[in-house]
Amino acid sequence: MKNKKTILIICLLMVLFLGMGFAAGRADLKINGNVKMDDMKWKIHFKPGTIHVKDGSVVATSPAEIVDEKETRIEFEVDLLNLGDFYEFDVDIENAGTIDAVLNSITKTEIPDELKNYVEFEVYYTDETEITKCDELDAGDSVPVHVKLKVKENVNAEDLPTDDAPTHFVIDFNYVQSGECTNP
Hints:
By secondary structure, the protein is mostly beta strands. It has one helix and twelve strands, in the order αββββββββββββ. Helix content is 14%, strand content 37%. A hairpin with a 6-residue loop joins strand 5 and strand 6 (73-77).
């Protein structure tokens, strides 16, 4: 009788450990903000104090600001009322963690179709190279990004839409751990 109980307990423990092992292998981990696992740390954000608005930019109703120092999201509000008006700034994205990362996506406020012929909204690296999915950002590195919102000069003012245009703009970079990005 004692042997049967021992065998039953061992079988139950094996099933329990196999179930926990399977669950641990299937778990997904999503990290927003900071995480510290032993000596590993995930910390990608816009570097505080690195927003530099370009000379000649219109005065923003709400200047570009880092929404949360733990994220890669910037918001700003600006009214571009005349041909050639623009709002431009540079900002650094920093990987202050110990885990290499890659850019999974970048989202920004969509310019309505009726304004695309008149307004440029561009985000690129300050060396004027294109930002693309799976761009690397190694641990300890930072990369300067340029944001440009401009009313084109080579259009007729009479052709500009009279409807209200968006004034609130958002840019959001989504990074994932290196090796997790697949190019489409």
